[in-house]
Amino acid sequence: MTSDHRVHFYDCTLRDGQQTQGVDFSVADKRTLSLALDELGVDYIEGGWPGANPTDDAFFDEPPQLTNAKLVAFGMTRRIGRSADNDPGMAALLNSRADGLTIVGKTWDYHVDLALGADRDDYVEVIADSVRIARERKGEAIFDAEHFFDGYKANPDYALRCLDAAYQAGARWIVLCDTNGGTLPHEVSRIVGEVAQRIPGQQLGIHTHDDTGNAVANSLAAVEAGVRQVQGTLNGLGERCGNANLISVIASIALKTDFKTRITDQQLKELTPVSRLLDERLNRAPSRGAPYVGESAFAHKGGLHVSAVEKDPRTYEHIDPARVGNQRHIVVSDQSGRSNILARFREIGIEMDPNDPAVADLVERVKAREFSGYAYDGAEASFELMARRALKQVPDYFALSRFRVMDDRRWNARGELVTESEATVTTEVAGREMMTVANGNGPVNALDKALRKALLEFYPQLEDMRLSDYKVRILTPQAGTGAVTRVMIESADGQGRSWTTVGVSTNIIDASFNALHDGLTWKLYQEGAHQAQTPRRPHALEE
C-alpha cells in the first residue's frame, strides 16, 4: 500500500469517449474540450491515436497549447516480428507532438494465445520494447494493461509478468484496465491490493468501464487499495455502457476523501460547466440526474424536504452545490407545500409573507393544474409566469384573436412527396389587429414563425430567441387519438439563457400555442420589455 496521497486524473474522453455510438468529434471539438479540461486541472489528456484516422492526425499536427495537463497520444505495442524502431504504428506515436505516450498491451494469456497467436514469452518482450522506446523518445510512457482483471483471475503469474516487463522498462504508470467492465468493487480492492505489493502504488493507475454500473465505485475502490492515477471520461462517455465518469470521480475524491489532487476549489466549480460543454458539443440534452452536476442533483420536490433544507441544507444535500458549480433547485409540483412555493419565489426574486393567503391559493392552483396535466417541476418559466400573473406582475404583451394551421401533403412538379405547414395568426398588439401568415417545417414551427412575424415590429428583443427542444407526452392514452397531450418547449436566446414552458390540451397545436405563448412572454418579461397597448384578453390559463 502506498503512503502517497496525491491522486492524478487522466482524461480519455477524446479517444475512448469517441467510441460511443453516435459520437464523432471534429478537430475543433477536440481542441475546445482539451482547453476546457486543461483549465479544469486534470493531469493528463489523451488526445487520440495518431495514425489511426485523419482527425487525430490533424489534432496532433497542431496540438492545443496546454498550461496544466500533459497531452498524451494513445497506441498499441509494436507488432510481433518487428522492432519498435521499424513499426509503422509505433512510428506514428513517436513522431507525434504529444508530451507522452500511452501504450496498450494485452495481459490476458487467452488473448495472447487466441487473438495474437503469439508466444507468451515473446509478447512479454514486445511490451518491454514498446515501453522502453516510448520512454526514451518521449520522456514519459504509460502502459495500459488491457483486460488485466480477467487476465489476473485466469493466470495471475502471466498477467504480473506483463506488468513487470513494463515497469522494468521504465513505465511511469502501469494502468490496470477492466476492459469489459465485468469486475466488481470487492474484486478490484483485492486484486489492486495484491498488485500494489509488487509495484508501487505511485506508479499504478485504474481504467474501468461501466458494464455493471460500477465504474466509479471500482475507480474509488482502486484508489483506496493503492492506485494513484484514475482514468475516465467526461459524463462517463464511452463504448457500450461507457467509462468511469471522471466528473463524479474528481468530485468524490476531492470532496469526500483525504486524498490530494492538483485541482483547486475554484477549478472544482468548473465541473458543471465542463460537463455541459461536452453535451453542447454533442448537441444533446444534459442528463438531469447526473451526480453532482445534473439539474436534478440538488432538486427538492417534497414539501417536508424543502422545509428541512431551508433549515439545514446538509439534511438532504451531501455537499454545497456551489462547490461543483451547480445550484439548489426547488421544484414546484402537486407534492408542493408552502415551503416549496416560498423557496421558489425567493429564487425568482419574489418575497412574500408565509401567511399571505395568496401563497395557499397558489399551492392549491399548482396542485389543480398538475392534476389536469401540467408539470411545473420541468417548466420553471411557466410556473414563474403563473405566479407573477396571480400577483398582477406580468404585462399583456399581446393577445391572440385566432389562429389556423394547415398541413399540405402532396406530390410536387418533380414527382417528389412533400409536406408543408402554413399558419395564419391574428393578434392584437398596441391596439392594432394584424393577420400574419408563415410556412414552416411543421405546424408548430409555422405557428412560431407567424407569431414572431407579428411581434418583432413591437418587440425586437425576440430576434435572438429560438426553440431548442420540443417534447410531447400523451396523458390519457386510453382516449386514443382524442387523448390529452402535454407539450414541453425549451427555448434559448443569444445571452446563453434557456427556459422551459408547458401547455396542455386535447389539441396538440393548442397545447403547443400555450407553451409558445409562455415562452415568448417569459423572454419579454426577463428583458424588461415595455407593454404595447393591447386590449385586455385573458390568458388561456386564466380562463
UniProtKB/TrEMBL annotation:
One of its GO terms (biological process) is isoleucine biosynthetic process. It comes from the Bacteria. Keywords: Amino-acid biosynthesis, Branched-chain amino acid biosynthesis, Isoleucine biosynthesis, Transferase. It catalyses: pyruvate + acetyl-CoA + H2O = (3R)-citramalate + CoA + H(+). One of its GO terms (molecular function) is (R)-citramalate synthase activity. Residues 7-269 form the Pyruvate carboxyltransferase domain. CDD domains: DRE_TIM_LeuA3. Its EC number is 2.3.3.21. It is an enzyme of class 2 (transferase). InterPro entries: 2-isopropylmalate_synth_dimer, AIPM/Hcit_synth_CS, Aldolase_TIM, Citramal_synthase, LeuA/HCS_post-cat, LeuA_allosteric_dom_sf, PYR_CT. It holds the Pfam family HCS_D2. Pathway: Amino-acid biosynthesis; L-isoleucine biosynthesis; 2-oxobutanoate from pyruvate: step 1/3. PANTHER family: (R)-CITRAMALATE SYNTHASE (PTHR43538:SF1), ALPHA-IPM SYNTHASE/HOMOCITRATE SYNTHASE (PTHR43538). Belongs to the alpha-IPM synthase/homocitrate synthase family. This is Citramalate synthase. The lineage of its organism: Bacteria, Pseudomonadati, Pseudomonadota, Alphaproteobacteria, Rhodospirillales.
